[in-house]
C-alpha cells in the first residue's frame, strides 16, 4: 500500500519560511522523479518543483530562487524548502511520485 504523507504546512507571515516534508511508505523515492504541486484557490494545479531521478531539479518561474526540493534517501522522504513566502504562495501543496502517479493528501500553506 503506497502512502505519501505531507507535513509542515502552516499559517505564517509574509517573508517567513517553511519546510514541507513528504514521508513515503510502500514505495521508494530513491532515484525516481518526485514533484511538488500546489493548488491555489481559484487556480489550476501548478507544478512548482521537480527532482528528477538523476538529481536534477527544476522550478516554476513564479517561485524560482525561493524554493528548494531535496530528498533524504535514508528516510525515504522528500522536502520542499520555501523561503520569502508571499500571500500568493497560499495553497494546498501536494507531494507527487510523478511517473507512478501517486499523490499525497496535501499540506496547507497560508501566508498573510
What does this structure look like?
With 112 residues, the chain is an all-beta fold. It is 0% helix and 50% strand. It contains no helices and 11 strands. Strands 2, 4, 5, 6, 9, 10 and 11 form a 7-stranded mixed β-sheet that branches. The radius of gyration is 13 Å and the shape is globular.
- Low-confidence sequence ranges: none
Intertermini distance = 37 Å
Average pLDDT, rounded to a whole number, is 94
Content-based structural category: mainly beta
Q: How do the SSEs run, as a string of H and E?
A: EEEEEEEEEEE
Please report the number of helical segments.
0
> In which range does the helix fraction lie?
under 10%
Task: Report strand %.
Answer: over 45%
Cα-based radius of gyration, to the nearest Å: 13 Å
Strand element count: 11
Overall body shape: globular
The largest β sheet comes out as: 7 strands, mixed
Task: Name its key features.
single chain, 112 residues, mainly beta, seven-stranded mixed sheet, four-stranded antiparallel sheet
Outline the secondary-structure elements.
Layout: E1 3-7, E2 11-12, E3 18-25, E4 34-39, E5 46-51, E6 57-59, E7 67-72, E8 77-82, E9 91-97, E10 102-103, E11 107-111
Parallel strand pairs: 2-11
Antiparallel strand pairs: 1-3, 3-8, 4-5, 4-9, 5-6, 7-8, 9-10, 9-11
In summary, what is this structure?
This protein has 112 residues and is mainly beta.
Amino acid at each position: 500500500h503506497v502512502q505519501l504523507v505531507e507535513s509542515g504546512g502552516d499559517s505564517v507571515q509574509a517573508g517567513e519560511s517553511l519546510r514541507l516534508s513528504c514521508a513515503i511508505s510502500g514505495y521508494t523515492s530513491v532515484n525516481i522523479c518526485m514533484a511538488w504541486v500546489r493548488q491555489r484557490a481559484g487556480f489550476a494545479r501548478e507544478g512548482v518543483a521537480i527532482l528528477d531521478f538523476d538529481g536534477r531539479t527544476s522550478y516554476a518561474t513564479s517561485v524560482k530562487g525561493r524554493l528548494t526540493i531535496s530528498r533524504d534517501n535514508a528516510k525515504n522522504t522528500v522536502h520542499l524548502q520555501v523561503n520569502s513566502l508571499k500571500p500568493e504562495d497560499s495553497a494546498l501543496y501536494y507531494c507527487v511520485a510523478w511517473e507512478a502517479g501517486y499523490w499525497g493528501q496535501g499540506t496547507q500553506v497560508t501566508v498573510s
